[in-house]
Amino acid sequence: MKKISILFPGQNLQNLQKNLYLNIKRNIFNKTLEEASQFLNYNLLKNLKYNLPLKTKYLPYVIISISVALYREWTKNISFIPHIMAGHSLGHYSALICSNILSFKNALIILKKRNQIIKNSLKNISTLMYIIIGEKLSVIKKICQKVSQDYQKVSIACINSKTQIVISGQKIAVLKVIKFFKKKNKIYVIPLPIFLCLHCSLLKKDSKKFFTFLKHFFFQTSKINVLCSTKTKILTSSKEIKKSLYQQLYKPVLWKNTLKFIKKKNINIFIEMGFGNTLTKINFYNKIQHTYSTDPLKNFFKTMKIIKNIK
Fold this sequence. Notes:
The N and C termini lie close together (6 Å). The protein has two domains: 4-121 and 204-309, Malonyl-Coenzyme A Acyl Carrier Protein, domain 2 (3-Layer(aba) Sandwich); 131-195, 2-Layer Sandwich (Alpha-Beta Plaits), CATH 3.30.70.250. The strands form two sheets. Strands 8-7-2-1-9-10 form a six-stranded mixed β-sheet, with helices on both faces. A four-stranded antiparallel β-sheet has the order 4-5-3-6. The chain is α/β, with parallel strands linked by helices. The chain has helices spanning 27-40, 44-49, 59-77, 91-98, 104-121, 137-147, 171-182, 207-214, 238-247, 255-264, 278-285, 297-309; strands spanning 4-8, 84-87, 127-133, 154-161, 164-170, 188-191, 225-228, 233-234, 269-272, 291-293. Strand 4 and strand 5 form a beta hairpin. Pathway: Lipid metabolism; fatty acid biosynthesis. It comes from Buchnera aphidicola subsp. Tuberolachnus salignus.
């Protein structure tokens, strides 16, 4: 029996305007982006299709829209449902939408409020996010804690694999940590091109405002298990889902543990549903063999064909 997990990427902003999915005439892509465009009162489809300048604040909506559009196309061709879904960072919203727990429209409303709260919370604060590759988590934690003893704060934002860690926080603090690791051999540091600083301890205080806002929404039950990547737990109630969304602002993404949890359920097929192949690469770091990307478009159809033929 096929046991499949669908993974949704959270941030992949590089080369987004060159997205191949938007260069083909498929109504499912147009429809999803038109839905988002109407809500935002901003023509995402036109800007992407004709490679016009796209305002940075709209990028999160594009990332979610592409994942949702892809999954809608997927369900038209693949009849069986996945055993589990999980989203990395922003991808958590895509997982909730595609599992029918949350409507696309409500997700956009919630996301807009979330972005407003983050922006206001970090107003007049310079922030950064960096990937550190090649160092142990315990060492990075120790340096972050040492630097954070001052007024400037930096913390772990994502644990993608044993040796791929993301940090976030105030600019001065992040750069102090990065300066330390730049001196070490075989350690690589990469700045993340982000719109908003996420999974950051600086957001804990104002996350309560987001939780209050979430009380106005009802989340449906689903036949598909959705795994919370900040707790490594399957969400079973509306209360748990709301908690996962507001805690996501300040808690780190435990992606390494998320993949481990899925593997323990004897689910060994991992499909990244979205633009780019960031999660597919991370899967290789975590020694996952049967992992498939849906980007570029030829990979989408190739992956569909492979899954159809798996018994």
